[in-house]
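Let's study today's protein:

:::
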Amino acid sequence: MQPVQPVQPVQPVQPVPSVLDEGTYTQIREPRGAARLALDGHWHQISPRYVTSQLLQNAVVFVLIVIAALVLSLAFDQTWVWIPAGILLVIELITLVILPRQAKAIGYMLRADDIVFRKGILWQRIIAVPYGRMQLVDITQGPLDRAFGVSQLKMVTAAATTGVQIPGLTQAAAEALRDTLIDVAETRRTGL
C-alpha cells in the first residue's frame, strides 16, 4: 500500500495589479432594471481610448462608403447605388451612436477559480472561463489600436464557446492581465 500524499492547499488568487484600472471607466454600465449579480471580486473596465479608436475606424468606413457611392453615381451614372449606400450609412451612424454605451458595458472580473467577462446592453453575454482550462492567452493590436495604445486580449479554451476576447485594454493592463492569467492557470491545470 502506498503512503497517502498530503493535499496541497489551494493558493489564493494573486493580487490584481493596480495598472488594470489606470485610465479606464470608473463604473461598469449596468442595464436598467436588471438584478445585480452576486459575484465576489471587482469589475475592471476597458480604456475610453478604445471608443476613440473604434469611432475613428467607423468614420473611415463611413467616408469610404460615401466616396464609393459618389464615384459610382457620378462616373458611371448609377444612381441606384445610393440605396444600399444609404442603408450602410444608417447602420454606421447607429454604430457610432451606441459605441460609447457598448464600451461602458464591457468588463471583466478575476475570481478565485475563473475570470468572468461580460458585454452587451440589450443582448448581454456573461462568460466564466476557468483558469485551469485556458490553453492560450494572446494579445493583439491593429494599427489604429496601437496608435491609441489599446490592445485586445484573447483567451482560448478547448470549448469554442468559452473563448473570450477583451477589447480596449491598455497595453500595460493587457500584459499584466496576461501574466497573471498564465501564472494562475499554471497552478490550476486540469485534465481534458
Summary: Residues 31-40 have pLDDT under 50 and may be disordered. Residues 31 and 121 are 6 Å apart (CA to CA). The helical segments are 49-75, 82-104, 143-148, 171-187.
